[in-house]
Amino acid sequence: MSTTTSEIVQPSFPTRVSRGLSRRIQRLLDQSVTYPVVRWIVMIIMLAAYGIRVYSIQGFYIITYGLGIYILNLLIGFLSPRDEPDMAHDGPTLPSSQREGDEFKPFQRRLPEFGFWKSASRATLFAFTCTFFQVFNVPVFWPILLLYFIILFILTMKRQIGHMIKFKYLPFSWGKKKYSGKDAVTKKAEPAPLPRMRKMIRKLPSTVKKIHCPGGETE
Fold first, then answer.
1. Smallest Cα–Cα separation from 78: which of 155, 24, 156, 194?
2. CA 183 to chain CA centroid, nearest Å
3. What is the pLDDT of residue 85?
4. SS3 for 26?
5. Best label site of 36, 163, 197, 212, fewest CB within 10 Å?
């Protein structure tokens, strides 16, 4: 039986299994986009499990230090804007029109929230897996690594906060303003009501003097 070049070659069984597994994982990741709170709770549980694992075996401090540096780098990308302000200017450029100044522009991150969570979760799983191999358990004096990480964290956050103050931006969006109508209408403040004045009533004397006129009429 002759074969032709147009015959489709079926992939091997391990390839089909890996492709099917990757598609299922990608489907789960796509479904978890709309549940950020659940995702970060899972992330915290993973970090707690890794911390308990490292504390129980008293080792793998180099892996832990590398994980902390990697997550710190992801945090800086999460807090930084996607489009860096023009360094040639002293500050952010002014809007060219009234409409551009009033337009709502949410903060666009260099690293989106989902990318931050995905990369941090992947790194945590990788670090947790490395704790099962003694080849990665390099003996080191861990207080030095902890002190160096604290100093690096303080210096990095100080530089990031200085960048925010210099270019006047916040890494969070508070949502778009809502208006009751198409255009904003400013109403004049109503004047304060005048104080009520008491009416002064003059009482007539009980006896009214009659003035006799020459014509015989009285007033």
1. 156
2. 29
3. 59
4. helix
5. 197
Q: Is 211:219 a contact under the CB 8 Å cutoff?
A: yes
| 83 secondary structure, DSSP code | S
Instruction: Tokens 């709502």: give the residue.
Output: 104
Structure tokens at 131: 């704790």
Phi then psi for 189, rounded to 5 degrees?
Answer: -70, 130
Tell me the mean pLDDT per 10 residues along the chain, length 219.
57 82 88 92 96 94 95 93 61 48 68 93 96 93 94 95 86 60 49 59 52 51
Task: Decide if 107 contacts 28 (C-beta within 8 A).
Answer: no
How many C-beta neighbours within 10 Å does residue 116 have?
Answer: 19
Instruction: Assign 112 to helix, strand or coil.
Output: coil
**What gap in Å lies between CA 76 and CA 51, rounded to an integer?**
23
Are 81 and 107 in contact, with CB atoms under 8 Å apart? Answer: yes
Cα 149 from chain centroid (whole Å): 24
Q: How many CB atoms lie within 10 A of CB 105?
A: 9
CA dist., res. 140 & res. 210, Å (int):
122
The pTM of the full predicted model, rounded to 2 decimals, is 0.67
